[in-house]
Amino acid sequence: MNKYVVRTSLIWLGVFAIVVAGWLFYHSHKSSQRVTISPAMSSEVQPAAEGPAAAPTSMAGGGAPAGGSPQTQEGAPDRAPLTPVQLSPQRMQSIGVQTGTVEYKQLDNDVRATGNVDIDERLIAYVQVRFAGYIRQVFANATYQYVRKGEPLFTIYSPDLVATQQEYLLARQDQKSLSASTVDGVASGAASLTAAAEQRLQQWQIPQSELQKLKSTGKPITDLTINSPVSGYITEYNALPNMFVEPSTRLYTVADLSRVWVYAQVFQDDVGRLKPGDAAQITVDAYPGRVFHGRIDQILPQVDLATRTVRVRLVVQNPGLKLKPGMYVNCDLKAPLGRQLAVSSSAVFQTGTRSLVFLDKGDGYLAPTEVTLGPQAGEYFVVLKGLKAHQRIVTSANFLIDSESQLQAAAGSFTPPPPGAGSNSPSANTPSLGTIDFTTDPNPPQKGRTVFRVRLTDSKGNAISGAQVTIRFYMAAMPAMGMAAVNTSATLTDQGAGLYEGTGSLGTGGTWQVTIAVQKNGRTVASKQLSVTATGGM
Known about the structure:
Blueprint lengths: L1 H31 L24 E3 L25 E2 L2 H6 L4 E3 L1 E17 L4 E4 L5 E6 L7 E2 L4 E6 L1 H20 L7 H18 L4 H10 L6 E4 L4 E6 L6 E2 L6 E4 L3 E9 L11 E5 L7 E14 L4 E9 L10 E17 L4 E2 L4 E8 L2 E13 L2 E6 L6 E3 L9 H9 L21 E8 L6 E11 L9 E8 L10 E11 L2 E8 L3 E11 L2 E12 L4
């Protein structure tokens, strides 16, 4: 028993020692990744996109800090400054850079939704009679049967109606016989009785044609024909032969489908952009290329708790009766924004905390600028602040790539443009005067101490001496690994015969964007951008 307790205790002590050793190794490795920021790097290239601040390491010939008290990554600013970048014509063509201008445009704020077609309740007519009676013959006897205005629907026999007609005929006869009476009030009384009987028939909505028939024949009409009051489709009918009906009985419902309602299901976040009277376009998969036009009639005051949508009622003209009640349709609601300063949506790069647009300064120099955006209208963003009309900007989405880290890599691999970039100054148009041959020892470079060599020759192959050679290294941020973007540099010393050499320490393995800048007598004579992959892991 004692041996078992001792053995178990030793096992747990071993496991605890391994965990402690792993924890210490992790924190010592993490602290070794911290690099210092040299004051000399304040004017170096910084990422143009949002993200963790870069932590550059200044490497002189021996890899020691250039001077000043170091700052760790924790003390770096949260927002990287916006620095112009430079692209060669070949690189601009290879990544598909396209440019355009900022312009004022007439914009509509599109809200897209789905909906269903319904009958316009304002175009529904109901057929009822104002007297009790018995239906004799039914002519319209099918749901969705089309009837025209004035077309007969059914005939009805009403004892009350027949009695009233007889009273009317008797009053007409008395009026004729007493019209020549000289007794005061007799002729006028007979005429009043006739008029009262006729008004009673009119109040029962007896068709005028039936009244004329009654007057001409002088006989009561036993089977009165009831006609359709409108043209449309019968959506409901209850008229059956020999059926007794009262004034409260709804016999037919006739709907005019020349104009219909469409109930669009609009998300509650988009409702605030709409108002009654705004234009709408309706498309249906059953009719490709066909567009039905309408307008917003009413935004109903209720939100569906299940879908978080609001029903917006549209009034849509229905030529040819193509839109059927219950049909599923696509709705494009257009809220006019008027004349607005706008840029293409592909020209805007959104980092999550700010929006950037690259200004085209000419000669490959692109300057990122922060903009304040309004609503998006189709393929355009409304610009509230940061741009002016007729400025040239980069519009291609290919240049912005598809992730923040790749954008930072693209921006960090270029040197800042010299003063007067984009202008017609001589320095902006000066061609490269030298050729750069870059090597490392070991080759490929490795994590840690590495020797960098640059050989400079002019256009005739002669060595260039007495120049200042600076190498800058940049690695994009990798948020998934918790790693910030890193900038580091090294200054090489002249070894003679056009050879320049220096040493430095790369803080991690992986792909670095390298920029080599050569200056002589205050003038840039050569520059080169390339990518190198260092071994040794992260």
